[in-house]
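The passage that follows is intended for readers who have already worked through the single-chain material. We present the inputs for a multi-component assembly, then the predicted structure in tokenized form, and finally a short commentary. You are encouraged to pause after the input and sketch how you expect the pieces to fit together before reading on.
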Amino acid sequence: MTVFTGRETQWLPPLIAAVSLLFYPTALGLGPLDSYECGHDEALVLPLIVGALALTAWLARWRVSALALVLALAFWRLRMLESTNLWDYLLDPLLAFTALGVLAARWLQKPPNPPKPRNPPNDK
Amino acid sequence: MKPGHFRAAGVAVIFAVTLWAAWPGLHSESAPGFVPPSAAVRAPSDEPPQFFSSLISGTHSPDVHAASLAERPDGHLFAVWFGGTREGSADVRIYGAEGVPDANGNTLWSKPLSIVSREETGEGQGRWLRKLGNPVVFADARHRLGMVYVSAAVGGWACSQLNLLRPSDADIPPASRRLVTSPFFNMGTLVKGAPVFFDNGDIALPIYHELAGKFAELLVLTPEGEVRRKIRMDYGRRTLQPVLLVEDATHAIALMRDADSHPPRVWRSETRNAGRDWSVPESTDLHNPNSALTAVRLDDGRLLAVANDVEDERLRLSLLVSQDRSHHWRAIHRFEDRQAQLGVNPDEAAFRAQLALDIAALGADHARPATEDIIANVTRSLCRKGVCNWRYDYPYLIRSADGDFHLVYSWNVSFIRYIRFNAAWLRERLGERPGDAS
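Having made your guess, compare it with the prediction:
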């Protein structure tokens, strides 16, 4: 049994990168809405969304993602880190940079377009 | 276990963990209100005006800055500041001193003692820290002293984090704890203004973000000092160092230092729901050269501020009053005024001569360093390439339960000047007669 399904490996880096690009700028002051505040100690909406995502991942057999999300929720409630914010259990800059790095590596490693076949000479 | 059962078990676990994690959110108590300001004990109206000044930071460190103070339940004061070779140097420590006010308007200050160092802060957290910065001391709803102070591991103050220190009951050095307030390596948060309190014991600490942008925020801590939540007061790059002025259980005004606007003015914002939402900041008419200010609210609703009410440099420190909830301000006293020197930039010799006169004008004070030591330190800190300038900044004002006002500020980065004045002295400055409301 493989740990990651093929689709999980394919889609996790872009998903994490997309969430990071939406999360970090707004959390650090771009615009009036503070995304970081959605994860505060008595948050309701974000843990429910995370639970729904975990459920979706589990049913889609993305087992690693499901486990990671469930552990994030549990560790948050158990205050395993110094932070009281759920976002700090879901995401960190190193994970975000890794996801972006994986995307960059994939883009750089894309095979160049094969040369177009030349039209055969027109034999009259 | 059959695959179907395994899957079902996973679903059940996910449901259970999600419900458990979201449970506090389902049961959060109704939002608390501010503790309304309590009227200060009225001093007798025939009490004479009293004004007292002393230097409290001693001789232990050349540069001192960012003092704050709090009143303890026994009426004593406790002041803290950071001091070292220069701002941001590795030897900077947080120092503190205890002040005992007497009935004649004087306050006797203890010798400063070291509260916490950079190494002690780092050791307690298992981290290496590069420097310490602004400390804010407060007495919480249970009358326990606490202190939140800034530290940075890398880079400048933009990469700062907050630490909380509480005196320990046992005879061991207290350990500070870091407060996680930002998702990007916990960088970018600083503190300057005094906290206010909610009626459930929570602490509302005005903070500011300075990593990517520059904006004011409100940090809500539980009585035990855990981060409950953080509320955005602004965004972008315009405000710093908010000061909170509570009017009643749901209304408060925030004054904020200007980060870089034209013309440079103090910003104001209001909340009508005990800090959960804040109005878009608007300019007041109080000039602000991108420097810290402080303010308290009088019993009759007027606001009293101490600030550099100029557009450039920090050559003047004034006492100002507002009668319209901070939109307009009027200066009623100058604690320091070198504004005539703006643009003059005296050379070192002229500066030293002027400084000697300034020091003499502060009056005799056995607790302060020798005049030549002060002059040497000030010229080292404030002279660049032979051109010098004065600097009076980072004021911090509180009102004690007996109605007196206590102010600390940085005097040419070389010592912390403490000033105490009473309501009668303030009435004189306001042009009022004894017996008028204050």
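Commentary: The domain at 52-345+393-430 of chain B is CATH 2.120.10.10 (Neuraminidase). The mean pLDDT of chain B is 91. How closely did your sketch match?
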